[in-house]
């Protein structure tokens, strides 16, 4: 969604462009992404049901460790997004440490829209991530399901410090999914998708 309307990748809501990214926040992209979504959209989306891959008891500790590493990388990405949206710039943040590919491109696009509109965010979103699946492959992948609560994440005009009016039909709490890849020993968020579904 655009920086003021519907982008959910970080706080990308500036232009209310319904972008399906984890950040369906209230900002340019994440904040803006879901700004155009209504609660009625939730009837058209299927709910995510976390069903971890079955593993043998001996492998459970390894799976738990991987799951914890995935959540840590995902949370770090969100922390960096929040910092970037608060100043409409990724400069000086840790965004690139755990975020890349489409996820990073979407966030940078949101930040650009926000800068042009003279908008930033205050506060922060509340996330509740759960690992849905970890796939062991040449390049291991993981899927995370989340409920992003943007109640206290606000898009404001940088100069006036006043709240930017957003559509009343936007989703305040929305389902978000993320795809991560393991590069060496490090998990990287490669895609964030804000669903047009409340949670």
Describe this entry's structure for a reader.
The chain has 199 residues and is α+β, with helices and mostly antiparallel strands. Helix content is 24%, strand content 27%. It has helices spanning 60-85, 95-98, 101-117; strands at 3-4, 14-15, 119-123, 130-135, 141-149, 153-157, 173-183, 186-198. The two termini are 19 Å apart.
Q: Which structural class do the helices and strands define?
A: alpha+beta
Helix content, binned percent: 10-25%
> What is the rounded Rg?
16 Å
Number of E-type strands: 8
Task: Count every helix, treating DSSP H or I runs of 4 or more residues as helices.
Answer: 3
Terminus-to-terminus distance: 19 Å
How much of the polypeptide forms β-strand, as a percent range? Answer: 25-35%
Largest sheet: 4 strands, antiparallel
What's the topology here?
Blueprint: E1 3-4, E2 14-15, H1 60-85, H2 95-98, H3 101-117, E3 119-123, E4 130-135, E5 141-149, E6 153-157, E7 173-183, E8 186-198
Q: What key attributes describe this structure?
A:
199 residues; alpha+beta; 4-stranded antiparallel beta sheet; 3 helices; 8 strands; 24% helix; globular; disordered N terminus
What is the gist of this entry?
The chain is α+β, with helices and mostly antiparallel strands. The protein has helices at residues 60-85, 95-98, 101-117, and strands at 3-4, 14-15, 119-123, 130-135, 141-149, 153-157, 173-183, 186-198. It has three helices and eight strands, in the order ββαααββββββ.
